[in-house]
Amino acid sequence: MPSHNGPPQKPIQPTGAPNQTLYLKNLPDKLQKHDLRLSLYTLFSTYGPVLDVVALKTKNMRGQAHIVFRDVQASTQAMRALQDFDFFGKEMKIQYGKGKSDTIAKLDGTYRMPTGPSSQPTITELQQSIFNAPPLSAPAGALPHPSLPKPPETQANGDREEPHGTKRGRDEESDDEGAPMEEDDSDAPMEASSDEG
User: Fold this and answer.
1) Residue 42 CA: distances (Å) to CA of 52, 53, 61, 98
2) Is 72 helix (H, G, I), strand (E, B) or coil?
């Protein structure tokens, strides 16, 4: 007959190789993403400089986060101090991250953009026809797009007609240059009003 000495103990999970990134589980999923990130940053930054807090609210990442420290010593100290910490009513589980964080890779110059079939955007036939068309390739007689400026029309003598509303250069003189402005004599000083009364 087996003896029961209390509830069965879970085996201690290996925390992995020491890393600057900590992986957190069993986080409350009722908090909004901004509040969760801010709370985690505030809590973990007491152990060292935190470079990034990644907390996603997707179905697969709910209740999990990654904290990226500047150095391994700070991440180790935080993990030891906060393991099973009661974080908004749930005991936080902390492990070292499995790989190098993108933030650390960008800092040390080893970051590589992910490549693969999923990273290539799909291009529809309509997008290809729009974006791969040569500029201003319209069939003869077609009206230009309303947002495009009309080309200036030429007059019978070959001179181009100036479009209406164009700004004149400074070297062109105006007829009313030097005309005095009318002064308004009704400019009387304003008196201070008081609200006492």
Assistant:
1) 12, 10, 21, 23
2) helix
Q: For residue 108, give the amino acid letter.
A: D
Closest CA to 29 of 100, 85, 110, 90: 90
110-135: pLDDT as tens digits: 888 877 665 556 667 776 676 776 65
**How many Å apart are CA 83 and CA 77, to the nearest integer?**
10
Residues contacting residue 157 through CB under 8 Å, at least 6 positions apart: none
DSSP 118: G
pLDDT in tens, 24-64: 999 998 899 999 999 999 999 999 999 999 998 888 888 99
* Alpha carbon 119 to its chain's center: 19
Q: Which pair of tokens denotes residue 155?
A: 């007059």
> Which pair of structure tokens corresponds to residue 164?
């209406």
Token pair in block for residue 53: 């807090």
Q: How far apart are CA 87 and CA 69, in angstroms?
A: 19
pTM of the shown model? 0.52
